[in-house]
Amino acid sequence: MFIRKQQIPTPEEIRDSRPLPKELAKVKAERDRLATDVITGKSQKLLVIVGPCSAHEAAPVLEYVSRLGKLAEKVKDKLVLIPRIYTNKPRTRGVGYKGMFSQPDPENKEDIVKGIHAIRDLHVRAIGESGLSAADEMLYPENYAYVEDLITYNTVGARSSENQMHRLVASGIGLPVGIKNPMSGSIPVLLNSIFAAQSPQVFKFQNWQVETDGNPYAHAILRGRVDNYGNDIPNYHYETVMQVLEGYEAQGSGLHNPAVVIDANHSNSGKRHRQQIRIVEEVMQNRKYNPDFKRAVKGFMIESFLVEGCQPHDVVFGQSITDPCLGWEDTERLILDVAEQA
Asked: CATH number, domain at 255?
């Protein structure tokens, strides 16, 4: 049974009440161009989507993004840094904390209207304080409209990549959308999802029949898989990346802009957050080995926050309350190392 609690304003009403200032819209437009140029191959830079597993509180996220903005200036000739500001991220089993969008205070009850305003404020402040527009996960497709003017990079998670609505909405986003391989690790399913997102579509969205042109910037994220016994099986290795590239380029595939982003955490690391360093280094070595591998791998996703690890409740400032993350010092060293090798 559904119990109506409060009516939520439309995305247009929300965006009008807290618009992105014109000067920041220009910053975002340039950030969008940098990211899309990497996916199309126009730019040889690498994308690094980096930040906390979930953005549960504004103050530490803004501190993190401010540091990342300064680091971005140091590596801008080689890397495009995109902060993870994941505001819809729930706990793995879907019970309890469901992200800032639903629960702006992780220790209090859900308040979606307050949450929507909180995440818009966070994204706008992050762009203003760091010069970086962010990535967010499109966990709930209908929520995208509330932040579509603020986000440079979207992801479709492993549990959502086979969902038709996620594929359809991705087809209408004219910016990079990374689609993770499903939990099974199936490469054909992943490529089918990318094809659907790259194709024109007609469907119902926000009480409208909409039509999209298809999104040529939709691409693959390899995040590892989980076998039938719950074991994490990595898929960042050379062989899997080349298999994805072959699928992109197969005759009749209909796919554009072959691109793979490596998620260094999740099932690739078994959520052992320090393994992300080793995984990124291995992938960088493989880029040196084969120019086709280098052409395919466009960047990394790295989970990182101010303080290493995770905590069950928001006690330590700048530490994740969901998956464990790298600390800032390791993150900075890793990004500088990647830039040196890129």
From this structure: 3.20.20.70
Average pLDDT along the chain = 94
The Cα–Cα gap between 245 and 268 comes to 19
CA distances for 8 relative to 3, 98, 114, angstroms: 14, 17, 10
329 lies in a domain?
yes
For 303-329, the pLDDT digits (tens) are 999 999 999 888 999 999 889 999 999
What's the number of domains the chain is made of? 1
* Residue 324 in tokens: 């464990």
Whether residue 86 contacts residue 52, with contact meaning beta carbons closer than 8 Å, is answered with: yes
What is the DSSP-derived secondary structure letter of residue 97?
-
Is the per-residue pLDDT at 150 higher than 80? yes
Host domain of residue 259: 27-341
Instruction: Tell me which of 132 and 251 has the higher pLDDT.
Output: 132
- pTM of structure: 0.95
Task: Name the β-bridge partners of 205.
Answer: 208
308 within 8 A of 333, measured Cβ to Cβ: no
What is the DSSP annotation of 237-268? SHHHHHHHHHHHHSTT----S--EEEE-SGGG
**At a CB cut-off of 8 Å and minimum separation 6, what does 172 contact?**
201, 205, 210, 212, 213, 215
Domain presence at residue 1: no
User: pLDDT category, 91, cuts 50, 70, 90?
Assistant: low
